[in-house]
Design goal:
4 copies of one chain form a homotetramer. Helices cover about 35% and strands about 20% of the residues of chain A. Chain A has 12 helices and 12 strands. In chain A, α9 (about 190-205) packs across α12 (about 345-365). By secondary structure, chain A is an alpha+beta fold. Chain A has a 9-stranded mixed β-sheet. In chain A, strands 1-2-3 form a 3-stranded parallel β-sheet, sandwiched between helices. Chain A has 2 domains: about 10-125, Rossmann fold (3-Layer(aba) Sandwich); about 135-305 and about 350-365, Dihydrodipicolinate Reductase, domain 2 (2-Layer Sandwich), CATH 3.30.360. Chain A has helices at about 10-20, 35-45, 55-65, 85-95, 110-120, 135-145, 175-180, 180-185, 190-205, 300-305, 315-335, 345-365, and strands spanning about 75, 95-100, 125, 150-160, 210-220, 230-235, 240-245, 260-265, 265-270, 275-280, 285-290, 370. The interface of A and C includes residues 289 and 294 of A. β11 of chain A pairs antiparallel with β11 of chain C.
Amino acid sequence: MIGGGQGAFIGAVHRIAAAIDQQVELVCGAFSSNPQTSLASGEELYLPPERSYASFTEMVEKEAQLPLGERMDFVAIVTPNHVHFPAAKAALEAGFHVLSDKPATLDHAEAIELKKIVDKSGLIYGLTHNYTGYPMVKQAKHIIAKGHIGKIRKIVVEYPQGWLATKLEDSDQKQAAWRTDPKRSGAAGCIGDIGTHAENLAEYITGLEIKELAADLTAFVDGRLLDDDGNILLRFNNGAKGILHASQIAVGEENNLNIRVWGETGGLEWHQNEPNTLLVKHLEQPTQIYRTGHGYLCEAATNATRTPPAHPEGYLEAFANIYLAFSSHIKDRLNGEEKDSYDYPSINDGIRGMAFIEATVASSKNNATWTTL
Amino acid sequence: MIGGGQGAFIGAVHRIAAAIDQQVELVCGAFSSNPQTSLASGEELYLPPERSYASFTEMVEKEAQLPLGERMDFVAIVTPNHVHFPAAKAALEAGFHVLSDKPATLDHAEAIELKKIVDKSGLIYGLTHNYTGYPMVKQAKHIIAKGHIGKIRKIVVEYPQGWLATKLEDSDQKQAAWRTDPKRSGAAGCIGDIGTHAENLAEYITGLEIKELAADLTAFVDGRLLDDDGNILLRFNNGAKGILHASQIAVGEENNLNIRVWGETGGLEWHQNEPNTLLVKHLEQPTQIYRTGHGYLCEAATNATRTPPAHPEGYLEAFANIYLAFSSHIKDRLNGEEKDSYDYPSINDGIRGMAFIEATVASSKNNATWTTL
Amino acid sequence: MIGGGQGAFIGAVHRIAAAIDQQVELVCGAFSSNPQTSLASGEELYLPPERSYASFTEMVEKEAQLPLGERMDFVAIVTPNHVHFPAAKAALEAGFHVLSDKPATLDHAEAIELKKIVDKSGLIYGLTHNYTGYPMVKQAKHIIAKGHIGKIRKIVVEYPQGWLATKLEDSDQKQAAWRTDPKRSGAAGCIGDIGTHAENLAEYITGLEIKELAADLTAFVDGRLLDDDGNILLRFNNGAKGILHASQIAVGEENNLNIRVWGETGGLEWHQNEPNTLLVKHLEQPTQIYRTGHGYLCEAATNATRTPPAHPEGYLEAFANIYLAFSSHIKDRLNGEEKDSYDYPSINDGIRGMAFIEATVASSKNNATWTTL
Amino acid sequence: MIGGGQGAFIGAVHRIAAAIDQQVELVCGAFSSNPQTSLASGEELYLPPERSYASFTEMVEKEAQLPLGERMDFVAIVTPNHVHFPAAKAALEAGFHVLSDKPATLDHAEAIELKKIVDKSGLIYGLTHNYTGYPMVKQAKHIIAKGHIGKIRKIVVEYPQGWLATKLEDSDQKQAAWRTDPKRSGAAGCIGDIGTHAENLAEYITGLEIKELAADLTAFVDGRLLDDDGNILLRFNNGAKGILHASQIAVGEENNLNIRVWGETGGLEWHQNEPNTLLVKHLEQPTQIYRTGHGYLCEAATNATRTPPAHPEGYLEAFANIYLAFSSHIKDRLNGEEKDSYDYPSINDGIRGMAFIEATVASSKNNATWTTL
């Protein structure tokens, strides 16, 4: 693991997600750019001191020298955004598979470059767009793929949060600090941090691509360096239209990633906040409440669930589903049983995300002119 | 009453709204452009045949000849849009107050003209933007006016319906026919029919005005002459940003006018579908569920309710609140007790609505260029 | 109208319910046992002074002397409970149809007696168990009658309110005063006031009868003379089991009449609080959300609705449905077109309600012994 | 681990719950009464064959011979009910702490006996009444303990499920088979399996004890040997009244453990189905929506959460909270830092549960006579 030392948020999430299905074991880490913090973090995680490294370069180098079967199988990257690319590059070039937090890189050019590195390496690269790990998201994708709601016409995806409604970055809040800092977060704030999740979710569920967009980004909090709110018109490659809006200044909102999709003969609605429910709408019949865990769900949804209906699984289990699919890929390759495809986000999703960020920022600078991805 | 004969929708709604509080009595009507239909409609409504008129011109003329106290007090206009202006003009010029269905007129120029006529007449003119009649909408307006959620930053108002997802206008559906016909409906379809309600609701609740907008309208159903879907970016006169989207092709949606408003210190959320609930959000405290009928509500909300909490009042009662405020105005004037203001939409709301439609259509024709209202 | 003068609650509800469909006109009243109040109330309601009577005996006597076509068609009784019987008796014996607020009488013996009077008179008697007027309640009844959820096994009906959580009857609250007074309310408080609505709803929807019950009633508020809370086990005549609980001390609850029914192959769930939704549950398929106003509903539900889906109709419209069915019955009889049955509660419902109250009180006095209705 | 081999349900849940916080490692198991199954199960769990035992007696014996630090620290019992007591007894007598699935034993006498064994051993015993592990359940307990809703008056706790609506035990469904078998499940079916969870939840949240109850149990499915539905009146030791109903034949219900509590000045409502929300009700103020993860929650709720608001945690995390508290107790004892109390269910909860089952069954046999716990 690279990053995720004391005081971090997403590192702990990754460790739980890895632990849930008992298929992945944490064996080493470079948990912080500060060697002392890295060592202390490793101790808390019951690691032997020699496998808590002072830097990711040291880690990939030393681990590569360990015998097969003893060294780590893959690297999880859970740092602020600006480290994603160099860490992934180092790991891949040292021969390790990579599972990276999103966004894949700091900018679009890096993402293109990273894809070349991945392709060249022949190694496995995954990206934790974790919201696609939910069973009902997979069910939604299935329903659309089967044509059950007809040709898609309209998509509304939204992601309001409220935690940055005040200037939290001026306090001692580590998360707020780096996420509002262009050097560590990238060209966008809110749109990079959570807008990309919304973009990825919309494209994952519908199988469509955003063709062009018109964006109006705002930094509402005085003195903030990056956008904390964005409203975006979307046009998709099949002629569908849509809206994506995201915010981190929407007071009272928690983490409300929501999506509604309407096709010619039906509609879908899903709220991350209540993730085990999927509303399925019809032309002239009652709306149906699909729920996690039932026998009527598709295989992908069923495989992404561990318990019966209304034993609610949530964010951590959805995240674990990414780990499970990714680690299955590694395991299958080790066993010579690799399948054609695995259900976790790839470097291509990473490139789409970075293209989305760049187009959004560019459009907004041009007063919401339509901009192609 | 002008319009609202057999087979019409909104006329019956107006009659119920007028009846609920037992302050208004239907005394005459020109219910249809077909004299026979008008007469038959009047009979069903227990009117004497001599007061079911063949046309609105006949009605205003003949009623004006009746003695005071016997003739109608005001005219309710419930026709398709293209008749709103001529009917209102005729009534006002004959000396009758007017309560008109929305939109006020067929286009913006007519609305400006109508305001001049209203002003010149000195008579009372109301517009049934009925959704502002809900108690919790009034409570939302109160909370914002009192500054309880701080300066407004973001507004998301949406109005998805699904009833025009197929080409209903080709069947024998009267409502679908005129609402998708530019001659009778105006320059916009969905945006004129329901988008204006969303616009009016947002401005009513927040007290702000939309300054400019960027709109992407679509007619998804093949061969449809007017938009059946619209996605719009908004900028308000105080610097707030927003989104308005409306649709009539959102399969499975009924009549889901929803609004969310976020200010610097709080937020509000209201759904017309469950109109007696208002969510009030705070920076670091639990969200509160405000409910119709409680002692903690503002005076305007309290006055707009007839029953205790959870004796749910709905669409018809909200509509009746417009009638009640409008008829109180007339009564107070008759009694020489006119107040400074009454809580029903006026010709100014009508002008805003027509400006909104024109700006939206113009922006969309210019590929969503920002357009000033 | 008998009762319903200034300061009353249910009288105003009846007047609105009667007005909504414009089929019933208020022509006279004995609005209060105080002649001055009756007169003043009549004036507010635009009645001529000679038709605001000093007592219900005066009213039925004088109205009976008016010519047919001029005198009232029926009497609406909206007094406290102890007046229901004598008022109904007087009206029926003077030849007037009666629509009475519930419960039908003060005790079970009176109800039996009243049925005899009704039968003897040949007149029409209705009882405003208004919650059966909701479209989705009618849909629920239809689904069960059609066998769509199989033989009924379990029924949970509940009615928590919170408005009597403190000793409101000691303040100047007229409603609280008579409803907690055995002389005016009858043998039960909460169970008589709202428990009977729950009983009636369960029997109406399922078509079953409560055979026996075991009840535990409590007066939680110190010094209160009647129960303000009750928990009851139910056994139905088909072998189904159930629970009925009602409360007026459930702080924070408004008027939450809820019912769930489970049969061998499906289930139903309805909440008065959100009355336009009915959940329909199935053995191995997603739950469906039935909603008012759609084409897939049964005829009785459709007839009980005035507007399209999500133009929410509520308590007053449901109440109006009782008035509409009752007044249609009168009209049809006048026109010689009487049908076999009409969908409004009858004196038999009144008798069931009084039997329920007596059994509940008796069971509770015997420490929740099973007691037959 | 004792039990939880291939095809079991709750064993896998325990393993995930243990893994989530990375404080507990599975080191050995007697996963099945069939030695082959036990061995195969252990292999799937990456255990060395020598630590997959053929029986729990073998396991406790052999593990006790391993050196400290190498042998297991505690035993998790996840078998059908009839094995809980002998397994716990064997483990405790061999010197191992025990964490047992509920109910603690097969009957009340065993539970009393088990408490003696626990007390004598001086070892740590925990019981996985997992629903008390939810953060909002802890918040509810806190609010009541602080007196924020006043003296408790009424409690309604319910647990409808639908999975046994048909005779599933006749198919090849292992869970259905043992849970409907008196020999393996105990004297009650539904009431033992899930009624005890409801009982435990009510007592945990309120701090009250059920003093007596009147129960009506039914086996609705023909030929079923144990109750699949129960309706129970409750009286608590402080004078509060209540209702507990549970069902496994409520078609369409998943796992809907719900509780509502009303005190003199407020109320609480929690649904396991949407576990991160707690409704807090007040006498004359809007209801509040408490949500997991916020700064305004009590310490116990905060400690039971891993992620920010609306990163929904669910059933597995709540279960993990029991494991975390239990394993902290062991760790603290090992470190000589034992605290006065730990927040996980104990043998006393186990005894209450068995007393509840016995009283319920006895009451029901006596036609719902009041029966003391």
